[in-house]
Design brief:
Blueprint lengths: L23 H14 L1 H14 L5 E5 L5 H9 L4 E6 L2 H13 L6 E5 L13 E7 L8 H10 L1 E10 L3 E4 L12 H18 L11 H7 L3 E12 L5 H17 L6 H10 L16 E11 L3
Parallel strand pairs: 1-2, 1-4, 2-3, 4-5
Antiparallel strand pairs: 5-8, 6-8, 7-8
Helix pairs in contact: 1-4, 1-8, 2-3, 8-9
Length: about 300
Amino acid sequence: MAHDHGHKHDHEHHPHHGHSDLDWAAIAPLLESQAELFAPLHERALAWLAQQQTDPGLVVDAGSGPGVVSCLLAETFPGARVVAVDGAAPLLERARARAERLGVADRFGTLAGELPGVLGDLDYPADLLWAGRSLHHLGDQRAALAAFADRLAPGGTLAVLEGGLPARFLPRDLGFGRPGLQARLDALYEEWFAGMRAGLPGSVAETEDWPALLAAAGLGHSHTRSFLLDLPAPAPDRARAYVAATLSRLRDSLADHLDADDRATLDRLLDPDDTASVHRRPDLFVLAAHTVYTATKSL
């Protein structure tokens, strides 16, 4: 079964119970819907990227998930062939169907396998390789970046989306429970994330200085920019579904580390019949920032 390494760039990644046990076919619609919510952020990021890599022949989405960003890449670079790479076949099926619906299937392909080794199966080097929140699911990030760089054509660009700021959905004071719930959830999530990283096969502790790591992979001309998703209150239904799914995963995965008050607060936030829930409250919003780092292979 595929490791959970390629499917989080389309949405905010949060802990699940046992990555290897995920039913990708069952959760693919949710992942696709959440990715569509973040499409405006990715569109701005790709427009910025298009200023750096103007006419790529081959664009690779390394860790594509259901292909929302892959198809945005196809739209951003109409002269390019796009290859979506992922370890979960049901998500690649979703990506192919999406490319067909959007009319880009004639220059859209998929490649199934584990990163980074599967990139060796590409027919030719990439002019642009996009890795959106897939790198942190690989144990040795430095070695993975070197492998990514090795699959670039001369003059090709590697774009890594990692980090940014935790998403915010709710006011600090909800009107019940202790104020600052999301800040406490962030702290617990950081502990979970550190444990996830430490438990990956071949895990290597690394200072996450992405420009320095890109330089160590032999790439130059580094650029960094962050992009905002700002969906103000009252949030649309798709945003409410995303927030509910995110908080539900956190409640289930971090339950043993939450105090009774915060568990009760989450239960109320997730109760569709409660007027103070994320399904109904008028002050729900989505505010998130994602950071993209780029560097180029010398000619």
